[in-house]
Amino acid sequence: MRTPLVGTFTALLLLGAAATPAAAVALPDGSAAPSGAPVRAVDFAGAVALSNCSGSVVRMPDSEPTDPALVLSNGHCVESGMPGPGEVVLDQPSSRTFDLLDADAGSVATLQADKLAYATMTDTDISLYELTTTYQDIEDDYGIAPLDLSDQHPAQGNAITVVSGYWKQTYSCSIDGFVPQLKEADWTWKDSVRYTPECDTIGGTSGSPVVDEASGQVVAVNNTGNDDGGRCTLNNPCEVDEDGNVTVHQGTNYAEETYIIPACVGTGNKIDLSAPDCTLPKPADG
Description:
- The structure is a single chain.
- The protein is mostly beta strands.
- The protein has one helix and 18 strands.
- It has one helix at 135-142, and strands spanning 2-3, 13-14, 47-49, 54-59, 68-73, 88-93, 97-101, 107-120, 126-134, 147-148, 159-164, 169-184, 187-195, 209-212, 218-225, 238-240, 246-247, 253-257.
- The protein is globular, with a radius of gyration of 17 Å.
- It starts with a strand and ends in a 29-residue tail after the last strand.
């Protein structure tokens, strides 16, 4: 994961090539649609830019227009620093801001968080911010609809687009396969998405939504890649198969699946880790 971008071109950790939060190195040059219904072409509408990463305004399958909107990014992108192994951040106050983009990557608004609803780098690498405004307000004021978060496991071979709000750039490729365990430094992620080579993501793309081109839904969140061919080190994640065999794929990039999130979001878009089907990591004390 590449380290998050700090300031302009500082810390290099997470996404773009490795499993730690994304860091910039160099500037590059919604529910399933009904059968037969047109799917909106993948563009930048609903993507956001954080100070150090990318993200998106996302809607759960059961979210209501009047619910406070949620922004999805990586756990390694949170402003308090990367959560340690086993650490879960839940319902912490936050006033973080996000630049909301339109279809053409123009910045149309600054959205503000009310709290960091959830974040972890254990088993997955996600953060969810609750905003001070609702989906309906965002659509009424700026004409931007949220991205729909799928509650279905992504499929190997499907065409995907990674949408970076930070760089205002997209990367199109396919899901090459799934990794039982992806290890980077002290962190381990489970059932990670491996991209085909065309998604040559870089630092600053951490937290970008991974959109299935057929459904138009978010199926994963971009988070890391192997930069230098290192073995299980920062910015050099390694793959571990079911038998414990370790392999390294320099230049390969990865994302974390998001289909497990909706089961942990209840009425009013509130995080409910006690929900029967919720499998997200829980705080050690709860």
